[in-house]
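step=predict obj=Protein krueppel n=157
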Amino acid sequence: PLNKDLNAHIKTHSGLKPYQCNQCDKAFYQKNGLQMHERTHTGEKPFQCSHCNMGFSQNHILRTHLRIHTGEKPFKCKVCDKAFSRTESLQEHLIAHTGEKPYQCEHCDKSFTLSRVLKRHMRIHTGEKPYQCSQCGKAFSEKFLLIKHLMIHSGEK
């Protein structure tokens, strides 16, 4: 197995990506990378949360999701000690310490540090609710609200 792992690692330095998706032409160094990617096209979600029954295409995404239920927040801000469950959330938070808010709402006087936060804010003005419960049809403006709602169906508090 060690030799196999080493050979697979060496391939990543060659620049060759011999495993190509036949749906979108995205290419990968390793076969398992292609197999995981193909789940984006098939919708296959073999990793299921035991708390809320949500499915995930990859095990590491499930492990990150589980932090919602456990409350684990292993990533800590060195400036203010605020803790986060995802490293990406910490990185976004660090922008807040600069005070810069370059994304301005054209409907009100609010401005934001991230473009995606402005986009989410715009739903207040548009009334858009893109996240729909597959069990009862109720729609939500934010993904976390849908996730919280799904806990009602699973019996979790």
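step=describe
The beta strands are 19-20, 27-28, 47-48, 55-56, 75-76, 83-84, 103-104, 111-112, 131-132, 139-140.
step=end
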